Amino acid sequence: MDKKIWCGVDFGSSKVGTIIGEIQEGDIRILGFSFEETDGIKEGEIINLGKTVDALQKAVSRAKEQAKVEVKDVIVGITGSHIEGKVSQGFVAVGKGRESGEISEQHVAQAIENSKTIQLAQDQEIIQVIPNSFRVDHREGIKEPVGMLGVRLDANTYIIAANSTSLRNYELALTKAGLRRAAFYFQPIAASYAVLDEEEKESGVVLADIGKDTTDIVVWYQNEVIHTAVIPIGGDFITHDISIVLKIQKKIAEKLKMDHGHAYPDIAPEEEILVELSRGKTKKVNKKELAEIIEARVSQIMNHIKREITSTEYRDRLASGIVLTGGTSLLPGIDTLAEEILDLPVSIGEVNIAHDYSSNPRFASLFGLLYIVRHLTPHKPTKGVKSKEIKNALKKMWEFLKENM
Q1: Which region is the signal sequence (predicted)?
Q2: Nearest Cα residue to 305 out of 346, 266, 333
Q3: Position 387 pLDDT exceeds 50
Q4: What is the DSSP string of 194-210?
Q5: Other CB atoms closer than 10 Å to residue 96's CB: what's the count?
Q6: pLDDT over 80 (residue 405)
Q7: Which is more confident, 382 or 261?
Q8: What is the C-alpha separation between 10 and 79, in angstroms, rounded?
């Protein structure tokens, strides 16, 4: 049996996570999992290289110790307001003149490659190319064109681009930690593969990952990525609001949010709690008042999500509603409030794998790094062109997708 060991590193605004897993015949087994809290990253950008490297080294070291393996090349999850998504197309001639030819994997890879010829800002570069569907001559919506006959093959793709300087800083952090970047992945895309099933992505669904500094969105329909967005508001804004309104230190506000927070005041308990402050002082806080503070900011986040969804043509086609991930989605009542604002069914995402942290939506994008690799890896790879990026094991199409998806 062909077994492969993969290592993923997820750079979040509150933590750096590392996961090491074995993928065999499509099954994932977690060998190592660790994370280290850090304030070296803000809104998806490294603001303190030393702190980021320190957190990365600690997380990777613990994961390697658990897995009992050495790792060098890693797949990397990132986010940030500098990341942008665009729809694109690319084509390749298959036959000669008007004569049909058989579509090969090389044709598919070339059509996808050609879709990269889009206009980008000077400081941007492509990190992912997601093949949504293909067109063979007049036939639309084809998912697997290899082996079909046609004169022309068109690839409909969704391209993710990121700021070049931000990417170089992440690569520098990896280098200082003794690692090497194999591929970058946009975090909500990775999380989608971990928590969404095929039926949800086919029928229409939004994944909204509410992190510390940003809320990342990806809209799926007919198993295609339709829209992505990064909203520069996250759970830390809630903590800041609590700190300002209640006049307490931010670290105390964060603990109060985590231990007693509720996003829907109507069902929050009407009781007071005694909060320990600095210098031996205490303060009484009403839980319903706390919930009202939280509700205001969560409502703002949900209204931003609503605007992003409405900006697409698919607002009324999202049969599977919204799936929330990220640490903020742990707030009690957030699904109720979200359903009220978005007028769509809302659920909290979980990873369907046996692991202590798989039910915690805070780690969806970290688990997703392994799931996205599984998605890109054929269960029974054939002999052919080898991949130069990851383990030299897959054919040219899979090599391209791993470098860019």
Answers
A1: none
A2: 346
A3: no
A4: HH--HHHHHH-EEEEEE
A5: 9
A6: no
A7: 261
A8: 9
Q: What is the mean pLDDT of the segment spanning 305-327?
A: 96
Number of C-beta neighbours around residue 92 at 10 A: 18
Helix (H) or strand (E) holding 369: helix 364-376
- pLDDT tens column, 80-107: 999 999 999 999 999 888 899 999 999 9
Question: Which candidate, 4, 17, 2, places its Cα nearest to that of 211?
Answer: 17
pLDDT at 356: 84
> Is the C-alpha dihedral spanning 185, 191, 194, 196 positive or negative?
negative
Q: What is the pLDDT of residues 13-36, one digit of tens each?
A: 889 999 999 988 888 999 999 999
Band of residue 2 on the pLDDT scale cut at 50, 70, 90: low
Mean pLDDT of 277-301: 95
Domains of the chain in start order, with CATH, are 84-161 (3.30.1490)
How far is CA 358 from each of CA 19, 43, 210, 331, 361, rounded to the nearest angstrom? 12, 24, 17, 17, 7
Length of the chain: 405
Predicted model pTM: 0.89
What is the DSSP pairing of strand 3-11 with strand 73-78? parallel
Count of other CB atoms within 10 angstroms of residue 330? 17
Burial of 205 (0-12, 13-18, 19+ CB in 10 A): buried
| Tokens 């990417």 found at | 167
Alpha-carbon dihedral sign for residues 196, 201, 204, 210: positive
DSSP string, 8-73: EEEE-SSEEEEEEEEEETTEEEEEEEEEEE-SSEETTEES-HHHHHHHHHHHHHHHHHHHT----E
Which parts of 196-286 fold into alpha helices (H)? 198-203, 235-246, 250-260
Q: HEC profile for 118-131? A: CCCCCCEEEEEEEE
Separation between Cα atoms, residue 118 and residue 265, nearest integer Å? 47
Q: Give 247's DSSP letter.
A: T
Helix count and strand count (H, E) for the chain:
11, 20
Mean confidence (pLDDT) of the chain = 91
For residue 383, the model assigns a pLDDT of 33
Distance of CA 79 to the CA centre of its chain: 8
